[in-house]
From TrEMBL:
PANTHER family: TAURINE IMPORT ATP-BINDING PROTEIN TAUB, TAURINE IMPORT ATP-BINDING PROTEIN-RELATED. It holds the Pfam family ABC_tran. The keyword Cell membrane applies. This is NitT/TauT family transport system ATP-binding protein.
Amino acid sequence: TGTLTLEGVTKQFDTGTVAVREVSLDLAPGDFVTVVGPSGCGKSTLLRLASGLETVTRGTVAVEAASTSYVFQDPTLLEWRSALRNVELVGELRRVPREERRRRALEALELVGLTGFEAQHPRKLSGGMRMRVSLARALVADPDLALFDEPFGALDEITRLQMQTELQKLFQLKGFAGLFITHSVSEAVYLSTRVVVMSGRPGRIVAEIPVPFAYPRP
Ligand code: ADP
Ligand code: ADP
């Protein structure tokens, strides 16, 4: 499980803008692929097509995953719920029994280093901690496929480096396939097993570069 295949995907919006043209991409279990490229070259659109949030104009998107999660740059946390209850929400929506739901949420918060902060409300947390809650919420359901739209783009440099290290650990531990958008080439090289470079308007994939010192695949 945990595969994503895009074949000859083109997206033209109702406005007439062609955001991506003829894009093909393969993600297998153990792949962590980053997409880099200038603003407006269609990276977000590509991710939204992969997630099913947008429909393709031409081409095909095939996802094989029991569960997919999506992490945005701006963590959409529920401000009136504690960190724990934000992470528990996923289990609530899936009707997971209360005790299991709580156990898994506590475990996920521990994985992202938030033990001790379970009862805090999001507005009291720093940007990095909010991103950690968002990561815990994304990973609590053990997704086979995780999609990241520039999640660390708004964080300060030090927090960003910490989050990169933690995400890499989580990836090694959990073994989901990942597709990760970033503006930062160093972030891409650090995190991924493969870097995809997009360019142009409409955006196309102009290079795919395996990262030679990629960590071992699960
Ligand atoms: P990136 O993520 O690389 O910055 P986007 O995928 O956000 O690029 O945008 C690619 C192009 O598609 C841009 O020209 C953008 O204005 C356009 N675009 C994105 N979303 C929409 C939309 N919902 N409707 C119309 N045009 C869009
Ligand atoms: P980024 O550059 O960080 O990828 P954008 O600011 O381009 O993000 O886009 C943010 C949101 O606005 C996305 O959901 C995208 O689909 C939407 N969007 C971008 N351009 C347009 C547009 N021209 N018309 C409508 N929606 C758009």
